[in-house]
C-alpha cells in the first residue's frame, strides 16, 4: 500500500523543482494529485508523464497570488475529486535584491507570491478540510526564513517573505488544531532546482558556493530530498506533528 493511498493532494508550483518531485512521489504513493502552476505548458508535460505511468493526477493553472485563481482551482478540484486532504504551498520566487537596491515592485511581487500566496492557499482550502474532518498542510519556507542574514540566501524581501511563512504556519497550527488540521513548514537549504538553473548557476557552482557551509558531501540537495520531507508531513505517519519546522539543508544552519 502507498503512504498516501486515496488522499487528494493539491501542490502549488508543481511544474518544476521540489513541487514537481512532490507530485511524482505523492502520485507513486497512491495520492490523487492536483498539480498546479502558473507555467501551464511545463505543468501539462509533467502531469502527462505522471498519468502515463498509470497514476491519478490533474493539471490546473494557478497563480497563487490571485484569490480568483484559487477559487477556480478549488472548484475544479472539488468537481473532480470531491475534497482536499493535503495542501502543499510550495510555489515561490526569488529576487536577489537587498534593502537598498530593491524597488517597491520587487518587494511587493516577492511578498505577493511567497507570503500572500501561502495565506490564500490556506484560506481557500482550510474550509474544505474542516468539512472533511482534518487534513495536512505543508508550507515551504526556507532556511532564509529562520536565519534571515544568510548571504547566499539572496534578497531582503525573500527572507522576510519566508519568515512570514514560518510564523503564519505556527499561527495556523494553533488555530486549526481543533479541526485536526496539521500545519508544518519545510525549510530547504541549497537545493539544485529550476531556481538555480534559471539564475544560470551550474550544479558545481552551486556546490562550490556552499562548500564551507554544508558539512555533508555533495553540498547541494536534490528536489526529492525535500519531497520526501513533504511526504512524511503529508502522511498520517506525522499525525502528532504540527506547528513544527523541518529543516532540510545538509546541516548548513546547524552550527
Ligand atoms: P522552481 O523555480 O524550480 O519551481 C517553482 C515553481 O513555482 C515554478 O514551476 C514556477 O512556475 C512556480 N510559480 C512561480 N510563481 C508562481 C505563482 N505566482 N503561482 C503559482 N506558481 C508559481 O523552484 P524550487 O527551487 O523548486 O522552489 C520551490 C520552493 O522552495 C519555493 O517556495 C522556494 O522559495 C523554496 N526554496 C527553494 C530553495 C532552493 O535552494 N531551490 C531553497 C529554499 C527554499
From TrEMBL:
<comment type="similarity">
    <text>Belongs to the short-chain dehydrogenases/reductases (SDR) family.</text>
</comment>
<keyword id="KW-0560">Oxidoreductase</keyword>
<dbReference type="Pfam" id="PF13561">
    <property type="entry name" value="adh_short_C2"/>
</dbReference>
<protein>
    <submittedName>
        <fullName>Glucose 1-dehydrogenase</fullName>
    </submittedName>
</protein>
<dbReference type="InterPro" id="IPR036291">
    <property type="entry name" value="NAD(P)-bd_dom_sf"/>
</dbReference>
<dbReference type="InterPro" id="IPR002347">
    <property type="entry name" value="SDR_fam"/>
</dbReference>
Amino acid at each position: 500500500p502507498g503512504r498516501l493511498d486515496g488522499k487528494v493532494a493539491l501542490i502549488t508550483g508543481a511544474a518544476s523543482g521540489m513541487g514537481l518531485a512532490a507530485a511524482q512521489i505523492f502520485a507513486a504513493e497512491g495520492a490523487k494529485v492536483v498539480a498546479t502552476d502558473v507555467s501551464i505548458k511545463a505543468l501539462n508535460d509533467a502531469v502527462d508523464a505522471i498519468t502515463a505511468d498509470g497514476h491519478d493526477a490533474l493539471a490546473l493553472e494557478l497563480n497563487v497570488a490571485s484569490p480568483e485563481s484559487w477559487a477556480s482551482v478549488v472548484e475544479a478540484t472539488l468537481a473532480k475529486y470531491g475534497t482536499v486532504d493535503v495542501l502543499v504551498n510550495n510555489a515561490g520566487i526569488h529576487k536577489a535584491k537587498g534593502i537598498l537596491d530593491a524597488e517597491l515592485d520587487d518587494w511587493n511581487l516577492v511578498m505577493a507570491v511567497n507570503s500572500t500566496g501561502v495565506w490564500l492557499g490556506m484560506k481557500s482550502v482550510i474550509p474544505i478540510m474542516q468539512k472533511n474532518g482534518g487534513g495536512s498542510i505543508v508550507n515551504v519556507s526556507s532556511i532564509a526564513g529562520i536565519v534571515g542574514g544568510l548571504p547566499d540566501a539572496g534578497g531582503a524581501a525573500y527572507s522576510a517573505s519566508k519568515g512570514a511563512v514560518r510564523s503564519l504556519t505556527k499561527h495556523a497550527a494553533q488555530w486549526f488544531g481543533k479541526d485536526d488540521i496539521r500545519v508544518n513548514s519545510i525549510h530547504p537549504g541549497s537545493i539544485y532546482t529550476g531556481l538555480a538553473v534559471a539564475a544560470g548557476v551550474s550544479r558545481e557552482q552551486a556546490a562550490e558556493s556552499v562548500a564551507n557551509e554544508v558539512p555533508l558531501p555533495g553540498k547541494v540537495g536534490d528536489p526529492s530530498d525535500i519531497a520526501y520531507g513533504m511526504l512524511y508531513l503529508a502522511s498520517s505517519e506525522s499525525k502528532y506533528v504540527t506547528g513544527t519546522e523541518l529543516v532540510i539543508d545538509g546541516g548548513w544552519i546547524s552550527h
